[in-house]
């Protein structure tokens, strides 16, 4: 989105999509988004789906095929960054509880450098207990404390020449790790999840909150979210709010804009280029009109 009414911050507009081998490809999509004035591209993550999965998908009774087929996000975002100059590239979300924090800190910092500081780090704990267990995260109930510690450990690596971290789940002695991110003091961390849990985690250690459109009364929860941020001794105005999975709905966009939401992220289907471009045009026109 572009200009906002006088005195109001603009509503940025992004897009999120499950890229697969049968969808539009990352570089092609990135070019089309930037040409239409989109601010950001957010890519999700699933390393695999276990055959014996018992965890229910929060979105419905049947897990869509795109979850099985989705591309790795960091490689895809690097391809997107290479063919654009303004588009911000982002994970939405990176499943930090399934990743080694030292290696992920390097992956994130490298992407921030090759994109010249255009990376936004969306993080979350996820819902698929069997997927996590295959990565060694077997205590599903404690995944949120693991998420916090791994984020804190990565912040230490990004901001210190000799980084160390000592927690319940993450523990390492002083180490050297480069590169460091372009963005200082570290790149922005956006925490996914609903209200109140996701909001509380974002208020504690995030630079932004990422709720999903349609699952909560997001606009109605914003005053309470800002109170949570203030209770942490932080400035509520400094934390962004990005609403995920937006539909091309003018009324909803206007409501979020008026409530002070920072960013509306349109959910795109994993379609081929010819099928996707008309939807991009529609969303871009709506964004220009409402933003």
Q: Could you characterize the architecture of this molecule?
A:
With 291 residues, the chain is α/β, with parallel strands linked by helices. Helix content is 38%, strand content 18%. The chain has helices spanning 26-35, 66-69, 73-82, 101-114, 129-134, 143-159, 197-205, 218-231, 250-259, 273-290; strands at 12-17, 40-43, 88-95, 119-124, 163-166, 171-175, 189-192, 208-210, 240-246, 263-268. The strands form 2 sheets. Strands 1-2-3-4-7-8-9-10 form an 8-stranded parallel barrel, surrounded by 6 helices. A two-stranded antiparallel ribbon has the order 5-6. The N and C termini lie close together (5 Å).
Largest sheet: 8 strands, parallel, barrel
Helix content: 25-40%
Number of strands: 10
Principal-axes geometry comes out as: globular
Strand order of the largest sheet: 1-2-3-4-7-8-9-10
Terminal CA distance reads 5 Å
**Rg over C-alpha atoms, rounded to the nearest angstrom:** 18 Å
Structural class: alpha/beta
Mean pLDDT: 95
Uncertain residue segments:
2-6
């Amino acid at each position: 989105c572009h200009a906002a009414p006088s005195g109001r911050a603009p509503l940025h507009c992004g897009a999120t999509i499950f890229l697969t081998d049968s969808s539009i490809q990352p570089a092609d999509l990135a070019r089309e988004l930037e040409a239409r004035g989109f601010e950001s591209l957010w890519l999700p993550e699933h390393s695999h789906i276990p055959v014996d999965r018992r965890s229910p998908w929060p979105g419905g009774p049947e897990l869509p095929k795109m979850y099985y087929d989705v591309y790795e996000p960091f490689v895809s975002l690097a391809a997107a960054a290479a063919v654009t100059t303004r588009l911000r590239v982002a994970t939405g979300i990176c499943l930090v509880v399934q990743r080694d924090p030292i290696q992920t800190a390097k992956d994130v910092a490298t992407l921030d450098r090759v994109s010249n500081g255009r990376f936004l780090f969306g993080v979350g704990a996820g819902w698929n207990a069997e997927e996590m267990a295959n990565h060694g995260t077997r205590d599903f109930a404690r995944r949120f404390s693991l998420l916090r510690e791994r984020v804190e450990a990565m912040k230490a690596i990004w901001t210190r020449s000799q980084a160390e971290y000592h927690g319940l789940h993450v523990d390492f002695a002083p180490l050297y790790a480069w590169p460091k991110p372009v963005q200082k003091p570290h790149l922005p961390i956006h925490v996914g999840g609903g209200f109140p849990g996701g909001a509380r985690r974002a208020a504690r250690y995030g630079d932004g909150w990422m709720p999903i459109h349609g699952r909560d009364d997001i606009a109605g929860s914003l005053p309470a979210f800002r109170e949570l941020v203030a209770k942490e001794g932080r400035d509520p105005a400094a934390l962004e709010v990005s609403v995920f999975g937006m539909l091309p709905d003018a009324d909803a966009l206007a409501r979020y804009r008026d409530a002070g939401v920072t960013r509306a992220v349109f959910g795109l289907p994993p379609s081929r280029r010819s099928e996707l471009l008309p939807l991009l045009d529609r969303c871009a026109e709506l964004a220009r009109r409402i933003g």
